[in-house]
């Protein structure tokens, strides 16, 4: 059986069913999709308030999209982008904003060193990388501080970290950050729209990936069944839910993020290594905001809608207009400490700040949206943060193997357990395939 | 009502009862004491397998001991101590081992800088200290690396960190480590036996502190009632237990460590700040070992029983002979990564390693114990580690205020919430008094 009807759990269940196993998926929420969720724009078009992009190299999710008969379309990137680093502002095309050449050179050399080191720890087991202990014994902030030397370069790398992890470089282990970058094939693939992880969108919204799989699985997916307890022995599990069924099975796939796995009671209790691990992989924090306008007015001004700033709370913005072209939508993110500050505001204060930032980027027409749609994932009981969990210092070197190692009949999935594209939809799919591969041979 | 019958919860309950409140204490285990626990030596004398020492400056626990009619006695420290730093071994009296003078000078200057900085962050709110963000953005390992310059000095400070936190300097925020040291009044008060936190013991074992309070509280303490859910609104709480009663109350004191508080389901869910905090305060890890001999043979050889080593798994050993003087007992600790390694061994392997280390310190008579008594606190469902929880980088500056701030009818106790002596029995008592003080005025 599978716990969690996010992409990881659904992919696992689907593989298991295809392999001839009898599968049940228990989902705490009254919907499938986990961190993938569609909301509705004025006019009824779906819009993602959770994970939403796919890109080249994400072979597993792209295959899944195709299998499910879904279509992708490119994120709108035509026009000039906006970049603010410190007090300088650049409106530019291509990959590189026109900033102080010293800052650009600093970013270039830092990224070169980051990518080179990330390749060395890109393996499935970053804790075995050369200098793993040293890298895991420091925060990513410490590593960046030694690597970038200009204020602008450091500010840019902070912005990039926040955009990728929804956490600051101070929050996480340098080894975790490097292995994450390595698993995506470098920093550019992570941060680019065209050619990177934000290149493409799914017509109808990414939640359709989960909905499509759930439809295939039919009555095997049970909603509104939050798992509270897993009693286990070598021959099987007994899974208790709050207000739902109690289920017996030969094996259990736990396909929820580490901080939620930590809230399930296991009897007998799990070995110290596994328990310590899940105590040390907190979730990032992000408030995602979609702001809809009667039309994508920025395009008329020759702007792509892509904007980044080291000095605004809304550090990253992209055009998020749906496939049909209307309404015009800008999507922005309050990440890490900006999410902390945002969550302490009232809705009115937060909206005012977001709109102010959009006006700062795109001018006065941004002042009058049709709709403001936000989602604070740290407030969601069954996510408790986004985009994903990260490892704090000294966690991978001490407890890394416990991330994926099965314990008796218990198997661990979820994007955080992926070797490639951990934190992305693709990583979730990878982990689902992996656990199914762990289990199916035992049934034959 | 109070959740958790450790010292924090029991002190809170006792103060509340004295203040005229109607109190119930729900305890998950079938015993009180939390991380205080007595086991039995051959012959029946009690011996602590959990927290066990008290010392000067710990005014709250000392007052409690006196009120309960318990007696203390000094930890045995007479004789020569053993210190191994790298390949050099010193058998010495007084405070300072005879080691390489360069190493001693390095330790001295590092300790001076540590104590000076710790005084600056000793306040109740370390996140407001000067340079708090910078200190919280790095691991304590990074800070120590910049502060100590010799291999011996660094090894010694690692040993001290492990002895104090049951975690390595790589595991925790520098700001957390500094505030912890500051809250104890400096490094010496933390690490010294005579004159420090290991100075005195409680006749009959420290669990008697908890047992004494529980006796006073009588039927108000309900054992075997693990709390699973807390439903709350401004006017009160409804607390659900697994297999025990459901209890309604006006207020709830949650007196369990952060990783266990995270496993209670709150409805409605707690604000993001509080939830993120408890995702980021993992427990230390220690396997505590008491080894009993027919007599304290090391004393005959002029040794105190105190031994420390940067090169052995059993990095810290003290004489733990009970008040009556028999049997002879040595207590040692496998801390942090040594606990990881120890937990992966079989009992026989682990015992063999411990005995080998004791023979290395004290000679061949250590080879033949009467009894070997160990406790791996990371395996305990209702502790999940020891000595206490610590904050990982960027946690105090982002979420520190959520450590103690009440939320509606919910109040937070436990030694980790203490301003002074966080992680010690004294800190637990401080936190119990504090929450009672938060609640009682509202009843008048």
Write a concise synopsis of the structure shown.
The structure is a homodimer of 444-residue chains. With 444 residues, the first copy, chain A, is of the alpha/beta class.
Task: Describe the secondary structure blueprint for this structure.
The structure is a homodimer of 444-residue chains.
Chain A lengths: L1 E2 L3 H12 L6 E2 L11 E3 L5 E3 L10 H9 L4 E3 L5 E6 L2 E5 L8 H20 L11 H5 L3 H8 L3 H15 L8 H10 L3 H5 L8 E3 L4 H11 L3 E2 L4 E7 L2 E6 L5 E3 L2 E3 L3 H4 L3 E3 L4 H8 L6 E8 L3 H4 L2 E7 L4 E6 L8 E8 L1 H7 L3 H16 L8 E6 L19 H4 L10 E3 L12 H19 L1
Parallel strand pairs in A: 1-2, 1-13, 2-9, 6-16, 10-14, 13-20
Antiparallel strand pairs in A: 3-4, 5-8, 6-7, 10-11, 11-12, 15-18, 15-19, 16-17, 17-18
- Largest interface, C-beta closer than 8 angstroms, per-chain residues: A-B, 45 and 45 residues
Strand line-up in the sheet with most strands of chain A:
7-6-16-17-18-15-19
Give the count of helical stretches of chain A: 16
| Tally of structural domains of chain A | 3
Rg over CA atoms of chain A = 21 Å
User: Can you identify the CATH superfamily of the largest domain in chain A?
Assistant: FAD/NAD(P)-binding domain
Shape of chain A: globular
Count of DSSP E strands of chain A? 20
Please tell me the CATH architecture of the largest domain in chain A by its name.
3-Layer(bba) Sandwich
Note the quaternary state here: homodimer
Strand content of chain A: 15-25%
CATH topology of the largest domain in chain A: FAD/NAD(P)-binding domain
